[in-house]
Amino acid sequence: MPGKTPNGKEPVENGIRNNQDVDMTDEKSSLKGKGKKGVKEGEDMTVVVPPSKTTKQSSAPPPADTDGDVDMDDSDKVEDVEVKVDPVTQAISDVKSNFALLDRAVALFDARFSLRALRSISSLRKRLTPDILSQAIAESYPATTSSANVARHLLAAIGREDVTLGQQSSAEMEVDSEPKVPAKNGNKKEKEVKEIIPEIDIFLGILIQVHLFDSKQYQKGANFSKYLSDRIHALNRRTLDPLSAKVYFYYSLFCEQLAPLPPSPQSPIVAIRPTLLAALRTAVLRKDIDTQASVIVLLLRSYLLTSHISQADLLVSHTQFPENAANNQVARFLYYLGRIRAIQLRYTEAHEHLTAATRKAPASSCALGFAQTATKVLLVVELLMGDIPERATFRAATMEQALHPYFLLVQAVRVGNLEDFETTLAEHVDTFKRDGTYTLILRLRQNVIKTGIRMMSLSYSRISLRDICIRLHLGSEESAEYIVAKAIRDGVIEATLDREKGFMKSKEVGDVYATREPGEAFHDRIRACLALHDESVKVCDSTFMPGFFDCITNLSFPQAMRFPMNQHRLELKNAQEAREREREMAKEIQEGDLDDDDLGGDFEGM
User: Which family is annotated (predicted)?
Assistant: First the structure.
């Protein structure tokens, strides 16, 4: 019908052009933002037409609409720009952020804050450079304080003696650039000069030690470590205990790398033993657990490097390793104690200590080297005890490549093949010497021969001494006769030796369960379980946690029982719920929903 729109309705009167058709224009003006308001009478209304892509890409600025708003194209939108932080500035900020922790450790006399600062060294280690260290020192130490001399010693250790103290960081420079607001008394605000505590000096010294060790400046690091140890001794502050343990640790590492190297008796590691022994005596008197555990481990390592086994044994017998020491130090102590017992031919004790060391080793990749080293010594000790390690030990992804020479060694010992044993020993002699297991592996030759004789006694009811000599690659029949006689005496084989006819006759093998061997193995397992139970009870008793004794038998990790989990969160939750109930009750009282009777009043007048 004429006069109607395509949808069948009459044209709506808009009150603008008296029922006339609206002109469609290509203007860019729009009614965005504030243009969504209603159109007043007497004003022109323009229909918005979406601009084409070519129009959007044009560089001409869009015209303003009636309200003064500007149409925003996609190119005019504000994009988020990532603020890039200078890595040098970030590293300096991370170093200086630990100073607040050290201040709190001194103010509250709490070593946990110092330990938190020490844990940050691993993340700072790869970013430490002389420029970063010198800048952190220059920004932290004012030139007018008494600690300026200490700062100059720190700068001299990294070769930055010309750096000026009292420099301002970039953030402080931005604040100082603003106009200063005068105080009420008319004087300008002056920044107070804060004295640097000695804990910050030692912490920065530890960072310098780490940098010097990573850059292989061992002589300079040893000299600087001596200065730090003397300063710690002169300060005599209990708040330096966690930091002093780290200083002595790097002091010993520096001396190990200086010529002449161990096991020479003229090695610098021998010269620092009086310093370590004095530090151990002081730590025992003060009950400083961190320094005591660290120094004992360092002394055992020093004695083993110079092959002073008797002195190491005397140290273990005359000192008591702290029970509450860190787990890492306990693992190191058990490892060195296991090596001492293995050298002393006390293989059963060595096996117990090395097994405990591998179990206490951290499972993270940063402690993979320690786990591999302890496992290598443990495998050799098991072979010396006459046991064959499990194949699953060599199939681990982190152990397969490192333990390959020991896998070949175990194969030769298992079958009693003396030729393969000597071939493996000759091919990997450098690896065994570097691991410190070469002297222990040399003892395995007798075990290989005993294993070969036992295999032949099980295979043959009677075998001549000449055949034994050929199969074991021995020099003469007299040697074979001596080895067979010793194996019979030690109980390795059940056989008799006929010297006149020159053969060995094996006895019939009886039932193994009729012997004492299964009972002894079962007794060893029971003893290990009881030892684990006793250790769990000790940990529970020391932390005063009643209620956990009922679950002792189900524990796998007794060290996880030191503190109740999330106890503080439970208390905060209960307090928050109590406050919520009080707010609801007060609100209901104000609204008149509750009266005194509902709140438990005295019911007067009844």
Answer: Belongs to the proteasome subunit S3 family.
Helix (H) or strand (E) holding 379: helix 368-384
What number is the average pLDDT over the span 156-165? 87
Rounded CA gap, 552 and 413, in Å? 40
Backbone angles phi, psi at 495, to 5 degrees: -155, 170
CB 412 within 8 A of CB 377: no
Residue 294 pLDDT grade (very low, low, confident, very high; cuts 50, 70, 90): very high
Which residues face 496 on adjacent strands? 505
b/e per residue 423-442 (b: at least 16 CB within 10 A): ebbeebeeebeebebbebbe
Alpha-carbon distance of 438 to 345, in angstroms, equals: 15
Instruction: Tell whether 382 and 271 lie within a shared domain.
Output: yes
> CB–CB of 262/246 below 8 Å?
no
Which of 357, 373, 391 is the C-terminal boundary of a domain? 391
Roughly what angle, to the nearest 10 degrees, separates helices 130-140 and 198-214? Answer: 170
Least confident piece of the model among 208-212, 220-224, 531-535, 573-577: 573-577
Same domain for 370 and 387, yes or no, is yes
Give the integer Cα–Cα distance in Å for 219 and 257.
9
* 392, two tokens: 């699953």
The answer to whether the beta carbons of residues 30 and 36 sit under 8 Å apart is no
pLDDT score recorded for residue 367: 85
Average pLDDT in the chain: 78
Would you say 423 and 459 are in contact if contact means Cβ atoms under 8 Å apart?
A: no
Q: Are residues 425 and 470 in the same domain?
A: yes
Kindly report the three-state secondary structure assignment for every residue of 2-34: CCCCCCCCCCCCCCCCCCCCCCCCCCCCCCCHH
What is the DSSP annotation of 280-349? HHHHHHHT-HHHHHHHHHHHHHHHHHTT-HHHHHHHHHH----TT--HHHHHHHHHHHHHHHHHTT-HHH
- Residue 299: which domain range? 90-170+195-391
C-beta neighbour count of 64 within 10 angstroms: 11
Structure token digits, residue 452: 């070969």
Cβ atoms of 19 and 10 closer than 8 Å:
no
Quickly count: other Cβ atoms within 10 Å of residue 240's Cβ: 24
pLDDT at position 585 is 82
Structurally, the chain folds into a number of domains equal to: 2
**pLDDT score at 53:** 47
pTM as predicted: 0.67
Q: What is the DSSP letter of 559?
A: G
Average pLDDT on 430-456 reads: 88
Indicate the range of 117-131, 242-256, 574-588 predicted with least confidence.
Answer: 574-588
What's at 306, amino acid-wise?
A: T
Contact 294, 245 (CB under 8 A): yes
DSSP percent split of the chain into helix, strand, coil, nearest 5: 60, 0, 35
Residues 419, 271 share a domain:
no
**Considering only 174-183, 203-212, 350-359, 444-453, which range has the smallest mean pLDDT?**
174-183
